């Protein structure tokens, strides 16, 4: 599997100026190459290299390997289609390989710049440093919101999947971001309060429309998104840890295209479209893969309306958002917890390995 380690560079003021100049020069060269490729309809890397290698080196004073990376970057940009001419921002990310980048130690990296090789410090967590042991391929130099980063792709073998003793069903929601079949609920009140706070603040600043208001909008841009991403990371980590500790697989519902299927009134529409279930599912899947925990995707239809005791499916079984009460047998439970239990049972049935293990019973025994 592949993961990306983002390392923050700590350049001196002089090194930062050189980094800006280098990134601007490389993207200027890429734009020139893109023009030549568009004019001559030469999009393959080999053909573009043969056509422009000497010229781009002479025109932009680039080293041999940097010129090769620029050509590869332009050719890769045209792989999607050749219908529009590609253009690159002044400080767009640029790839480095082992010929123009080298990690000197745990604190410094040697980079090619226009002025020559520079050793620049970087910081990263212990987790990121462990990932670097599996670094493979190119490293992207990025300039994001005034900060410099290196994005290193790390490729390592998938761990052996454990043999689960049951399934942990996870129900995604808006009031409760996630609820598992063991009864643990991850409330979304904090995320909703943060979302409402920043929505109100953005509306006020946009209504003002002054230069100071626009500057403030740029300053707070992305905060809500980063907070929601942080919360999804925390929730996914706890869910995977619970499954690994209990030797359970994870059952998730397939909510793809749910926004197109579900109808919501105007008051609920904004909240529905801010729902980050796809990101949370992706985080759970890659963390589970690293931990060797199997993940099963199931059909979400009627999971919140089905009674686990008698099997009755009825819209009236869920009179309120949080309450489940079967109209047939009277069984009652928290609605999200009930749905998570149904997901766990469906995930167990989906996997042939659980046919003889009575996995749903294992989950039910933990619920009591």
List keywords for this structure.
alpha+beta, Nucleotidyltransferase, domain 5, 2 domains, 7-stranded antiparallel β-sheet, 5-stranded mixed β-sheet, 12 helices, 21% strand, Cas12f1-like_TNB, DNA-binding, RNA-guided_DNA_endo/Transpos, Transposase, IS605 OrfB, DNA binding
Descriptive account of the structure:
- The chain has 12 helices and 14 strands.
- The chain is α+β, with helices and mostly antiparallel strands.
- The strands form 3 sheets. It has a 7-stranded antiparallel sheet with strand order 2-6-7-1-5-4-3. It has a 5-stranded mixed sheet with strand order 10-9-8-11-12. Strands 13-14 form a two-stranded antiparallel ribbon.
- A hairpin with a 2-residue loop joins strand 4 and strand 5.
- Helix 5 runs antiparallel to helix 7 and helix 7 packs parallel to helix 10.
In short:
Helices cover 46% and strands 21% of the residues.
| Distance linking N and C termini | 37 Å
Write down the domain tally.
2
Q: How much strand content do the residues show?
A: 15-25%
CATH topology of the largest domain: Nucleotidyltransferase, domain 5
Low-confidence stretches: 352-368
Order of helical and strand elements: EHHHEEEEHEEEEEHHHEHHHEEEHH
Q: How many beta-strand runs?
A: 14
Order of neighbouring strands in the sheet with most strands: 2-6-7-1-5-4-3
CATH class of the largest domain: Alpha Beta
Using only CA atoms, what is the Rg?
A: 26 Å
CATH architecture of the largest domain: 2-Layer Sandwich
Counting DSSP H or I runs of 4 or more residues, the number of helices is: 12
Could you give a short account of the major beta sheet?
7 strands, antiparallel
Q: Which structural category do the helix and sheet elements fall into? A: alpha+beta
């Amino acid at each position: 599997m592949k993961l990306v380690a983002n390392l923050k560079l700590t350049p001196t003021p002089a090194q930062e100026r050189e980094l800006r100049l280098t990134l601007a020069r490389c993207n200027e060269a890429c734009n020139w190459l893109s023009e030549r490729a568009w004019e001559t309809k030469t999009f393959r890397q080999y053909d573009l290299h043969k056509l422009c290698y000497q010229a781009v080196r002479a025109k932009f004073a680039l080293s041999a390997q940097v010129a090769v990376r620029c050509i590869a970057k332009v050719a890769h940009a045209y792989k999607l289609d050749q219908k529009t001419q590609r253009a690159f921002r002044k400080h767009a990310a640029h790839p480095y390989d082992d010929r123009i980048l080298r990690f000197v130690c745990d604190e410094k990296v040697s980079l090619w710049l226009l002025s020559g090789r520079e050793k620049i410090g970087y910081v990263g967590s212990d987790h990121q440093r462990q990932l670097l042991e599996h670094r493979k391929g190119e490293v992207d130099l990025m300039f994001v919101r005034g900060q410099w980063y290196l994005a290193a792709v790390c490729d390592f073998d998938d761990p052996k999947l454990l043999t689960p003793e049951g399934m942990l069903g996870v129900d995604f929601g808006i009031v409760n971001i996630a609820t598992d079949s063991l009864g643990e609920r991850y409330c979304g009140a904090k995320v909703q309060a943060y979302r409402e706070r920043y929505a109100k603040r953005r509306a006020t600043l946009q209504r003002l429309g002054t230069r100071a208001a626009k500057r403030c909008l740029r300053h707070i841009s992305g905060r809500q998104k980063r907070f929601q991403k942080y919360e999804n990371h925390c929730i996914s980590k706890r869910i995977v840890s619970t499954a690994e500790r209990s030797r359970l697989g994870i059952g998730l519902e397939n909510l793809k295209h749910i926004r197109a299927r579900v109808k919501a009134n105007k008051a609920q529409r904004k909240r529905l479209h801010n729902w980050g279930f796809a990101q949370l599912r992706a985080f759970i899947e890659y963390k589970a893969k690293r931990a060797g925990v199997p993940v099963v995707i199931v059909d979400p239809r009627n999971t919140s309306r089905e009674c686990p005791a008698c099997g009755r499916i009825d819209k009236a079984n869920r009179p309120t958002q949080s309450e489940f009460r079967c109209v047939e047998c009277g069984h009652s439970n928290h609605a999200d917890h009930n749905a998570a239990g149904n997901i766990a049972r469906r995930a167990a049935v989906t996997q042939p390995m659980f046919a003889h293990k009575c996995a749903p019973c294992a989950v039910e025994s933990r619920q009591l």
